[in-house]
Amino acid sequence: MSATSTPPGVAVASAPAVSLRGASLAYGPRTLWDGLDLDIAPGEFLAVLGANGSGKTSFLKVLLGLVPLGAGTLAIDGEPARRGSRAIGYVPQQKHFPPDTPLRARDLVGLGVDGHKWGIRLRGRAYRKRVDALLAEVGAASYAKIPVGMLSGGEQQRLRIAQALAPNPKVLLCDEPLLSLDLHHQRAVSALVGRQAKRNGTAVVFVTHEINPILEHVDRVLYLAGGRFTIGTPGEVMTTEVLSRLYGTHVEVLHSHGRIAVVGMPDRVLDGHPEELPGAELQGQP
Amino acid sequence: MNWSDFSHAVFNFTDYAQLLPLFRDSLLAGAILGLVGGLIGTFVMMRDLAFAVHGIAELSFAGAAFALLVGADVIFGSLAGSVLAALLLGVMGVRAREKNSVIGVIMPFGLGLGILFLSLYQGRAANKFGLLTGQIVSVDSTQLSALAATAAVVIAGLVLIWRPLTFASADPDIAAARGIPVRTLSLAFMFLLGISVALSIQVVGALLVLALLITPAAAALQVTAAPRKVVLLSVAFAIISTVGGIMLALGGSIPISPYVTTLSFLIYVLCRGVGAVRRRRGWTVRTPLEAAHA
C-alpha cells in the first residue's frame, strides 16, 4: 500500500490541496524526513504527530514556503509552494498579547483581510463586511470590540482561525493551536477547525503532540520520529507495533474510552542517524 | 528663590498678545513635531521600542555635539547620529532582550561621546544646553521649511507601510508566514524613527524625547484599543503637549521642555484614570449574541 493512496471518505475527483513527491529535509547531517510522498485532499484533516525535534514544525515551514525542500517537489493547490501564498492559512501557537496592544478582536481578524496591502485603508465597507462574516463564522461576534490583550487564550485562537480563513485558503496549517488552552477551549477550537474541513472543503494540516482533542476529526496521521515517518488512519498508525517500529524501541499504545495513550515513548528521539536504524520500509505502513 | 520669583520665571503672561505672533514659527514647528511624534509613537509602543528611542536620542545628541564642535550644521549632525543608531539597532537586535542589551551598551557610549565633544566646544554655552533640553524657540523660517519637509517625508513613509507594518508589529510570525517582508519593514521603520528622534530633539532635547514619542501614544492606549482612535488621540495629545508647552513657556525664562513634558505627563495620568474607570465599568463585557447580531 502506497503512502499516496486516497484517504478514506474523501472524494477522488478533486485535485490534491497539497502534494509532496520524494520530499526530504535535512539540517546538516541530520535528516528530518526523507522520501515523503503525500497527497492531502481538499477537506481532509491530517494530524502531524511526533516528539519534539522530530521535524513537525519544519514540515509546516516547508508548506509555508519559508524553508526549501532538500529534495523532491511540493505543490500547494497545483502551484509550487511560495512564501505568502494566499492558498494557505496559518494558525500558530497561542501567544500572549500585551494588554496595551492597540488592536481589538475585529482588527486582529482584519489583518488577515488586508494587512498585507500597502498604504492605509481608504474604503472600509467591504472590509467591515468581510470581518463581520469571519467573526460570525468562528463565533467571535460577541467580543468583536474587546482589545485582544484582554481576551482569553481560547478566544484569541478563534480569532486567529478567522484571520487565517480570510483569504479563503485551500489549506489551513495549524501549529499546536491547542497548546496552553483548557480542555473546554481545546474541544471548541478543534471542532471549529474540523468543521472548516468538512463543511468548506479546506484541507487541514494540524501539528500537535497530543492527538486526543482532535481524534474525532482526524482522517489521517503523519507520524514523524527519528528521521522516519509513517502515514495512515489513526487506527492504522496508533498501534503498539507501528509506533514501536517507528521509534525503534518498545512503546505501548493503549486505547481506552475513545482516547489513545502512548506509553514508554523515548524521551529523546534517535535523531541524527536514521541510516543506522533498520526499518526504512516503514514508510507507508501498514 | 522664593515662590514669587519661581512663579514669575515659570508663568509670565505680561505682553502675551504682543509675544504670541513672534513665535508663530515655533508654534508651527511644535505642531508638526507633535504630529510626527504622535503618529510614530503608536508603532514605537506596539514594537516595544521605548528604550531604543532613548538610545537613539543619545547618539543623536553625540552627532549634534560633533557637528557643533566642527562647525557643521547641528540638525544634520543630529540626523546623522540618530539614523545611524536606529539602523544599527534595526540590523543587530532581532529579539527584544538582545535589543535591550545592545541599546544599554550603545547609549552610555553615545552620551559619553556627546559630553566629550561639548566640553571641547568653545562657543556659546546656550548651544550646548539646547541639545539636551531643547531649543525650539529659536527656530527661524528656513529651519521651519526644512522641518516641515522632513516631517512630510516621515509621514508619507509611514502611511505607505502602515498596514503591513501594523501586521508585522502586532504579530511578526504570522506576518512573515503571510509573505510580509518583516525584516525590511523593521529597517524602514527604524530609519523613519531615527529621523523622528532627530526632529524631536530640536524641541525637547535629547533627554526628553520620550515625552514626545512615547507618552502621547502610551496615554492613548490607556483609553482605547481601536486603531484609528489610538492614532487620533496620540497625535492630539502630542500636539497639545508641544503647542501648549510653547505657549505656556513664552513669557517665562526657562526652556520649554519642562512645560512639554509636564503637559504630556498630566495627559498620561488623566488617561490612566479614565482607563481604570473604563476597565472597572467592564471594558471586556461580551455582548450577548442576539445583540451582536442585531
Automatic annotation (TrEMBL), chain A:
InterPro entries: AAA+_ATPase (IPR003593), ABC_transporter-like_ATP-bd (IPR003439), ABC_transporter-like_CS (IPR017871), Metal_Ion_Import_ABC (IPR050153), P-loop_NTPase (IPR027417). Keywords: ATP-binding, Nucleotide-binding, Transport. Residues 18-251 form the ABC transporter domain. GO terms for molecular function: ATP binding. Gene3D superfamilies: P-loop containing nucleotide triphosphate hydrolases. Belongs to the ABC transporter superfamily. This is ABC transporter ATP-binding protein. It comes from Arthrobacter silviterrae.
UniProtKB/TrEMBL annotation, chain B:
The chain crosses the membrane at residues 26-44, 51-69, 75-94, 101-121, 141-162, 182-199, 205-223, 230-250, 256-277. The keyword Transmembrane applies. It is a multi-pass membrane protein. The keyword Glycoprotein does not apply. Belongs to the ABC-3 integral membrane protein family. This is Metal ABC transporter permease. It comes from the Bacteria. Keywords: Membrane, Transmembrane, Transmembrane helix, Transport. It is found in: Cell membrane; Membrane. InterPro entries: ABC_BtuC-like, ABC_TroCD. Pfam families: ABC-3 (PF00950).
